[in-house]
Amino acid sequence: MDRxxxxxxxxxxxxxxxxxxxxxxxxxxxxxxNAADAITARHSREPGRVLIEPPEVTGDGTLRVSDxxxxxxxxxxxxxxxxxxxxxxxxDLGFARHEFLGQFGIGLLSCFLVAxxxxxxxxxxxASAVRWTGYADGRYSVEPADRAETGTTVTLLPRRGAEPLLxxxxxxxxxxxxxxxxxxxxxxxxxxxxxRTAEDRLPWASSGPERxxxxxxxxxxxxxxxxxxxxxxxxxxxxLTGVAFVLPQPxxxxxxxxxxxxxxxxLLSEGAEGLLPDWAFFARCVVxxxxxxPTASREALYSDSLLEATREALGExxxxxxxxxxxxxxxxxxxxxxxxxxxxxxxxxxxxxxxxLVDAWWPMxxxxxxxxxxxxxxxxxxxxxxxxxEEFRQLASVAAAQDLPLVNGGYVYETEIIERLxxxxxxxxxxxxxxxxxxxxxxxxxxxxxxxxxxVLTEAQRAVDRLGCEVVLRAYExxxxxxxxxxxxxAAFNEQLRSTREQVDxxxxxxxxALARTTTDDRPQLVLNYRNPIVRRVTALDDPALxxxxxxxxxxxALLLGYHPIRPVDAALLNSSLLGLLNQAxxxxxx
Length: 591
Ligand SMILES: Nc1ncnc2c1ncn2[C@@H]1O[C@H](COP(=O)(O)OP(=O)(O)OP(=O)(O)O)[C@@H](O)[C@H]1O
What we know:
Elements: H1 9-20, H2 26-42, E1 49-53, H3 55-58, E2 63-67, H4 74-81, E3 115-123, E4 130-135, E5 140-144, E6 151-158, H5 163-166, H6 168-179, E7 185-190, E8 193-196, H7 211-223, E9 229-235, E10 240-246, E11 259-263, E12 266-272, E13 283-289, H8 305-328, H9 330-348, H10 352-361, E14 363-364, E15 371-372, H11 373-380, E16 382-386, H12 389-401, E17 407-408, H13 414-424, E18 429-432, H14 435-441, H15 447-465, E19 470-474, E20 483-486, H16 489-501, H17 506-518, E21 525-529, H18 533-539, H19 544-561, H20 568-585
Parallel strand pairs: 1-7, 11-13, 16-17, 16-18, 19-21
Antiparallel strand pairs: 1-2, 2-6, 3-4, 3-6, 4-5, 7-8, 9-10, 10-13, 11-12, 14-15, 20-21
Helix pairs in contact: 2-6, 8-9, 9-10, 10-13, 15-19, 16-17, 19-20
Bound molecules: adenosine-5'-triphosphate.
């Protein structure tokens, strides 16, 4: 035997309020939407009107929404209002009809979020007026009504506690929020007079010299910022028009910025996601679309292939804007990059066009002044770079003194960008700087001099031996620099292995030892500068204790100057060498 489902309306209302709709405030949207659809369905030459009268105006505690729409016959009332999920806005195959906002057949139920009782008084042209009264517990009744004009009036009897949601100020706010772009006349009657809440024109539909400033003003009112620029958007397949506002301040690329989306001119969401590709974090959009679909809660865009195609088209548009800026307003592009470079660089990791843009327009830090990578290549050919900011700080001036132009690749994504360059520009030569390569540029001392200094060097080596470092004597610029501490990559790796080895258990230590056996035994170098007067004086010393003290101090100073990490053993040495030198420098009067 076939039976029909029984629906417990209270359960359904609970489901809607707690799980579908984000807030009971949506009731205003659903009422406006039904009124707008009814006006559309009437196809009247007269402009449609919606009048909202809150309890302050009706005087009997109810809220009334009247429209000059198509109205309903008694048969339709039974069919449409009393069946959950039934809608007049779908075609025979169940597809949403193009011209209407509604489609699910549940909108009116949202009124039960704020009301115990809903009355619909309606009259279709040529039919008699009826009154449908629905209660939150699932009962309803239908009776003849007294109404002359075609159209519908929905009356809500507030649920206890929901009164503030129906009060005039809230209703004005909500009618503005959801319906400000509706192409119909929406008026809220308030004790201080009627308030028109619909603008009747899309803010971006205007033209003329004031358009840009007007859109900036609009951005201030909806997003609270004065945009860097405004970009017109249009995706005909999605029936979408609108604008993207470029943020005037850096945005966190991982924080999803929501967009303001109108669906057939009714607000869908103030924070819609998925409209732009993730990389386009620097823009926030306001759009109106007729073809993209809402989720049932009508608070987000439904994710389908049309949304995906729209996202791609909008991404293309923003990319085009950026590339166009580079071609026509390079100064503006520079300003844009100064704000959003981190995001653009992130984008350049996967996108060749963005990579070209960064290459040509983003000034990088180098030891010959700030310049773009393209400029650097043009001047010096090879892009030699460091991967860490500290490494750059350490070596920039020494490298400059050896006529080695050097790019700081230490800032976020910059090394990856440099390393991707040869992928788009075959002729681009890049080379990561190996600190120890610098020593090959330093002058080696004469054999005789070197031989004569051998005892001093042996003493010096003894001073820093336990620190795992090798002393080398070379002559180099700048003269003012007495010593340089250079760690090449293999040495840095060994050092890391060693410190990890000390902190792990035996099993892991064994693994690390095995790994250590496969690496070269490169050690960091302390390169003393024979051109430096102090180093000259140190090498002329006879007293082994004093030589050691001086070399220890030079070691400490080179560490500090090079932004190297200071281990406890280094700190102890810095301390003892400083005190030792003080002891030598300050005469002891008692002796
Ligand atoms: N003001 C109105 N004038 C004329 N008909 C209306 C009005 N309000 C509701 N209806 C009728 O009642 C039906 C059900 O309305 P309801 O708001 O529940 O769903 P819907 O608008 O069809 O879809 P959605 O759930 O997407 O809002 C509508 O399809 C429409 O035919």
